[in-house]
TrEMBL record:
Its EC number is 2.1.1.72. It comes from Yoonia phaeophyticola. It catalyses: a 2'-deoxyadenosine in DNA + S-adenosyl-L-methionine = an N(6)-methyl-2'-deoxyadenosine in DNA + S-adenosyl-L-homocysteine + H(+). InterPro entries: DNA_methylase_N6_adenine_CS, M_Eco57I_C, MethylTrfase_TaqI-like_dom, N4_N6_ade-DNA_methylase, SAM-dependent_MTases_sf. The keyword ATP-binding does not apply. This is site-specific DNA-methyltransferase (adenine-specific). Residues 92-198 form the Type II methyltransferase M.TaqI-like domain. The keyword S-adenosyl-L-methionine applies. One of its GO terms (molecular function) is methyltransferase activity.
Amino acid sequence: MNFKEFETPEKLRGGYYTPHDLATFLVRWIEKEAPSRVLEPSCGDGVFLDALGSRNFAEPVLGFELDEIEAKKAKDRAASVGLSDVNIQASDFLGWALKAMETKSERFDAVIGNPPFIRYQYLPPLFQDRAQAIFEKLGCKFTKHTNAWVSFILASFELLRPGGRLAMVVPAEIIHVMHAQSLRSYLGENARRLVVVDPEELWFEGTLQGAVLLMAEKKRRKSDYAEGLGIYPVRGRDFLSLDPEDVFNGTAPINGKTVEGKWTRALLAPSSRDLLDELIEAKVARRFDDIAQVDVGIVTGANKFFLVQDEIVSRFKLQKWAHPMFGRSEHCPGVVYDEDQHQANAATGKPTNFIWFQDASVEKTAAGRRYIQQGENENLHTRYKCRIRKVWYSVPSVYSTEVGMLKRSHDTPRLILNKIGAYTTDTAYRIRAKEGTADQLVYGFLNGLTALSAELEGRHYGGGVLELVPSEIEKLLLPPPSKVKPRVEELDKAVRTMPMDAVLSLQTKRVLGDMGLSKRDQSELLSGWSRLRNRRHRVSSEAA
């Protein structure tokens, strides 16, 4: 977790401003409907107002910018480009929007802008309450993992007149993060058509945050047919010379599962989506939850105290409380964690020991008292997870499983056969097989089908690392374990020595090919995985 005091002022204020050419493209789209009133809920320094002025826009514009200095910049910029009917309010948009939604006194033909990217926990309490109230007002499920931009889009879209248009620069994570699911569902239900312009490159310098253009047209009547979502991939800036209306109307939309859940499915070719549905229908693909059980790893509350190198164990004489553990990708270069791997980790100074004080009896020993005092000198007993325990240094829910899985991965997730009963921290998951053996589960997990479903179900942030939480793991697609002939040692060697693309190709042939899946379908799955993996890594499809 990132702490507020370590973040930049720009990040805390959500102040990453839109390039002028992108703002102009979105303005060109909304003006196709000749809007008589426009809302800009997060003006910043006024780049969208500048774009409106460059188009000789003459209708009323209402804007909001909480920062008074930036609000003045926006007003000055609007005046400099000849916008005569602009009202910029240096106040909170969400508070104003709640009142407008309650009284139904304000409606707009178009909304433009770049909503602030601010985590919920970084918002002042009043703004947190307002963000949550927007969700509740619209009957949307709220989570405290959300970000300010989600509430901004919800409120903005609600304030559109029927048939109105919303054109915004939004985080690329709108496609896949769980905290945006309420927004995706709301837009899917209330928009006639949705289009996301999805770039291969990063548009904002100085940040790893990917961004997309969201173009959404509101239904004229509730009963109108929702065409669904289309994603328009772009490379470079050449698309900006196109007519945005052609981009909006010419992008093929898809509906159903895509709009109901994450939008990642829309990034796939239709043939890949159809194949996945066929495999599920034919029961070639099973859900992880039917095959295995997943649970979080051990939550220590102070990993540096409880997860230590051999040198710490020796210095503090902690041998009787030290147990083998793993929790990072560097601990597990293959798919097997055994004594040899454990000793290799220890020899290179990695933290391979979990210190487990089961109860307060440890304080009867000099070594135990000394180490606990060391932790209290560092105020570890005041940390939330530690202080809520009856005995702060006694970690609960300590058990190991025969299979583990790291929370994050670079290319694709893999299961780890835990041969020595090592413990895992909350950077990994504990897995139990419901069907078949642990060997079958570990071996069968690494294939093109499962790798592709991990891209569809997971999420990623700056840097392109894939992350899965238990509810997403439970939805992963796996081949039935009973049909898997495991060769775990061979797979372990392959993962350690071969590129993951080659490993997946080999495993897809061995696991899915042996089950009767055609070479064409194997290739389709691998192509879909590569397409989504490369997008996550910001690798050009031409370079891949």
